[in-house]
């Protein structure tokens, strides 16, 4: 016996030779995804009188490389909800397949799939929270659009931590900084939802996308828009932002190399 | 049946000296007492139908379904022990989900039947289990269009997926029947349960291999055949349950669904009428033979 408790009970070096420490872990704790790989940027959505409109561009970036330009980031779930995904695209694939299997299982009952957008949002937020609690998050920020159980338009967000929040208009990613102020100006809190038409909502979303195309270096001018109303879901996946011009850049002073 | 009573029928998986497995044959007997179940495969899809004997007036009408959906495009109906049928369906759903997790698409009806056949056959091999007391009819539609891969992100290459043979026919209806032994065949029309003999005779008359029967007509024929097959146990009341799966451009868009209420009622009405018509014909014939004077023996044959 000696005075070094950490040595007690271990094979003695003078008899067995020193322990081969290369078997010991040298790299620190076990880790999962530390950052997303292939990512989608903002998703924006607005409630209007009788429904919800949601947009996202068709780009998946690999770092700053515009890697995939025909990516569908708006996913329809069982004709009752649309989910907009920003963040990691492979995690989006995983969630989409997960939802597909849920839809199949729900349809085994006589009543069919009765899950509405609100149910779906609750479920997804719990999936996201579980994964963040395992230190293995699904690296997404989702917007879920559709109807709740009372047939009122529903729009809510869930992020990679499982945090949820709801508002009449929502945006993820860069859109949270650039689109939300525009939407707040167009649809102030005191303006009742009944006064916002589908056309207003669509036009506002297009305006936001255009601003994002100018200011977000991970955005694309090709986008998808889904409009959810009582009649059903109208999804257009090959929309284009038109009539852009960088001409205004000529008049910007104070940045970069300037002659005068 | 020399081996009966000599001990070769007491344990599963044991052959008798003349090469039979009695437990499997007894399982087949259990099926023969179940309500008739049939499947009809035609160009436009598959129809499944089952005769549900009402065992108690306290049972809720139209509840207690006997036809189950597997994935989105397959339906299974079985005759025999109902709980065995439920377990069989549960296994089918697991197989379909497992196929999806590997191949990211729906399981072909033939592949599902193959896996289920293997599963049922495994229950003939061990003394610790008994064979399935069901004969199941598996009907479904394999998509004729190129399907998107589950979770697919982009639209993929413009050419579509590789490895295709030009002009090869893809997809279509599938109908298989799996017996307690694990034996399964593909069918144009399949029948099992108590009234299978009468049902098979009716199915053969339909000339299903010619491909002339429409899906709607198949629904009506299926209803009529169940009614015909029920003739022998007329004292018991029954409920007709029917489901169908059509092509992508058909009424169910490649999905397995219950036959809509209106069409079901229409088919049942036509079935009852057809039966009444037959009875009338028989009575007329009887009268005619009586008139001709030499009745008796010939009629009883």
Question: What this model shows, in words?
Answer:
The complex is a heterodimer of chains A (260) and B (301). With 260 residues, chain A is an alpha+beta fold. Chain A has a single domain (38-241), classed as Glutamine Phosphoribosylpyrophosphate, subunit 1, domain 1, CATH 3.60.20.10. Helices cover 27% and strands 28% of the residues of chain A. Chain A has five helices and 13 strands. In chain A, helix 4 runs antiparallel to helix 5. The relative contact order of chain A is 0.18. Chain B is an alpha+beta fold. In chain B, strands 8-1-2-9-10 form a five-stranded antiparallel sheet. Chain B has a five-stranded antiparallel sheet with strand order 3-4-5-6-7. In chain B, a hairpin with a 3-residue loop joins strand 3 (67-70) and strand 4. The longest helix of chain B is centred in the last third of the chain and has 32 residues, at 261-292. Chain B starts with 21 loop residues before the first helix and ends with a helix. The chains are: A alpha+beta (260), B alpha+beta (301). The A-B interface holds A 60, 68, 70-72, 89, 92-94, 96-97, 100-101, 104, 107-108, 110 and B 63, 65, 68-69, 71-72, 93, 96-97, 100, 104, 150-155.
Question: What is the strand and helix layout of this fold?
Answer:
The complex is a heterodimer of chains A (260) and B (301).
Chain A (H helix, E strand, L loop, with lengths): L12 H4 L21 E3 L2 E6 L2 E7 L2 E3 L2 E4 L5 E4 L3 E8 H18 L10 H17 L6 E8 L5 E6 L5 E3 L2 E3 L3 H12 L11 H18 L6 E8 L2 E9 L20
Antiparallel strand pairs in A: 1-4, 1-7, 2-3, 2-11, 3-12, 4-5, 6-7, 7-8, 8-9, 9-10, 12-13
Chain B lengths: L21 H11 L4 E6 L2 E9 L13 E4 L3 E7 L1 H22 L5 H14 L11 E9 L29 E7 L5 E3 L2 E4 L3 H10 L9 H16 L7 E9 L9 E3 L2 H32 L4 H4 L1
Antiparallel strand pairs in B: 1-2, 1-8, 2-9, 3-4, 4-5, 5-6, 6-7, 9-10
């Amino acid at each position: 016996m000696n005075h070094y408790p950490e040595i007690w009970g271990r094979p003695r070096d003078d008899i067995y030779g020193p322990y081969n420490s290369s078997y010991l872990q040298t790299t620190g704790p076990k880790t999962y995804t530390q950052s997303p790989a292939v990512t989608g940027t903002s998703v924006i959505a607005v409630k209007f009188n009788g429904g919800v409109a949601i947009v996202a561009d068709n780009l998946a970036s690999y770092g700053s490389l515009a890697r995939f330009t025909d990516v569908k980031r708006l996913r329809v779930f069982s004709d009752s909800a649309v989910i907009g995904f920003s963040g990691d695209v492979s995690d989006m694939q995983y969630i989409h397949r997960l939802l597909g299997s849920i839809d199949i299982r729900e349809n085994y009952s006589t009543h069919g799939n009765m899950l509405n957008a609100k149910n779906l949002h609750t479920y997804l937020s719990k999936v996201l929270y579980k994964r963040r609690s395992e230190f293995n998050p699904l690296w997404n920020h989702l917007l879920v659009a559709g109807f709740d159980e009372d047939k009122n338009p529903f729009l809510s967000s869930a992020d990679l931590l499982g945090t949820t929040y709801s508002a009449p208009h929502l945006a993820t990613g860069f859109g949270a900084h650039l689109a939300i102020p525009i939407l707040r100006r167009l649809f102030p809190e005191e303006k009742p939802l009944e006064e916002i038409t589908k056309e207003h909502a669509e036009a506002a979303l297009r305006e936001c996308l255009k601003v994002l195309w100018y200011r977000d270096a991970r955005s694309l001018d090709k986008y998808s828009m889904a409009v959810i109303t009582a009649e059903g879901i109208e999804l257009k996946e090959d929309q284009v932002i038109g009539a852009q011009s960088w001409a205004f850049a000529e008049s910007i002073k104070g940045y970069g190399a300037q002659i005068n | 049946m020399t081996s009966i009573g000599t001990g070769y029928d007491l344990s599963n998986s044991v052959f008798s000296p003349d090469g039979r497995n009695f437990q499997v044959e007894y399982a087949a007997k259990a099926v023969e007492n179940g309500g008739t179940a049939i499947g009809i495969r035609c160009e436009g899809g598959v129809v499944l139908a089952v005769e549900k004997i009402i065992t108690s007036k306290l049972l809720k009408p139209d509840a207690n379904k006997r036809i189950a959906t597997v994935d989105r495009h397959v339906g299974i109906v079985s005759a025999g022990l109902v709980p065995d049928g439920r377990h069989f369906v549960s296994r089918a759903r697991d197989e379909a989900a497992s196929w999806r997790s590997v191949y990211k698409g729906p399981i072909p009806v033939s592949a599902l039947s193959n896996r289920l056949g293997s599963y049922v056959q495994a229950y003939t091999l061990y003394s610790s289990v008994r064979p399935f007391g069901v004969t199941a009819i598996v009907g479904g539609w394999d998509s004729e269009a190129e399907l998107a891969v589950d979770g697919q992100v982009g639209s993929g290459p413009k050419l579509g997926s590789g490895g295709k043979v030009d002009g090869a026919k893809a997809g279509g209806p599938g109908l298989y029947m799996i017996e307690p032994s694990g034996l399964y065949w593909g069918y144009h029309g399949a029948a099992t349960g108590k009234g299978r003999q009468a049902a098979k005779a009716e199915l053969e008359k339909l000339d299903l291999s010619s491909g002339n029967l429409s899906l709607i007509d198949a629904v009506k024929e299926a209803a009529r055949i169940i009614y015909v097959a029920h003739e022998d146990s007329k004292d018991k009341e029954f409920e007709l349950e029917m489901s169908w799966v059509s092509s992508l451009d058909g009424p169910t868009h490649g999905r397995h669904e219950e036959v809509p209420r209106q069409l079901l009622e229409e088919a049942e009405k036509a079935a009852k009428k057809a039966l009444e018509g037959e009875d009338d014909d028989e009575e007329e014939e009887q009268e005619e033979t009586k008139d001709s004077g030499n009745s008796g023996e010939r009629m009883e044959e």
